[in-house]
Amino acid sequence: MNNKEVAKLATKALLYEVTISPKAGLVSRLSNGSHRDMDFYTFIDSALSLSKYFSECFIYGQENDFYSPNFFKNLRDLGKKAEKEMYEATNGINTHKGTIFSMGILISVLAGYLKEVDEIDLKVLSEKIKNMCSPLLNELESTNNFSTYGEKAYKKYHLTGARGLALSGYDIVLLDGINKLKEFTKILDFETSCILLLFYYISILDDTNIVNRANFKTLKEIQMLCKKLYEENIKSLSKEKNKK
Asked: Which InterPro entries does the record associate with it (predicted)?
């Protein structure tokens, strides 16, 4: 696996994500959701603008030691450059800022890990991400400048947001979501499987965007609704599986 292959896969993931429909409140190929300032094509432009960044993250991870205390800091510099390119592609609209953060971490650590092994163990990869992201905990606890949605949600509700996911080593994706998607696609088509996985994620993740666009009560209501939808669909899937 090389930088070009990884960049292609990461860009493909972004294109798949925005194409999947319907996604209530989120931009898709059929709807702008709750967004007035962006649409499907904005996301296409944004995704394509980040392909170079994904490649750079892989090369950075290959050429540097992710155990180094400066690894995360220098990776952030790459991310800031990618943000500028994203804003240029979208005329100033924030489409993938969170993705720049999470994909940058995942790809760079993956690249470093691949120097050590021939086969990827997702549990080991998750642990390496946790270790690399450890400075984020002190960052959250010590910050006095609550400028982002995530920082404001942490201050008011102690929700860790995107930083918390990184600190967990993205285990909800690497050790949980991938397996669920594989199981769903044995019975359902790919798009429906992704929507079902989205219900699952919304039901268990504290989305700081929802909290800041609405409030904490609305977040909990949405989580309960998605939990119900997810569980109902899982029951139906189990029945279908038993028939076969």
From this structure: CitG, TriPribosyl-deP-CoA_syn_CitG
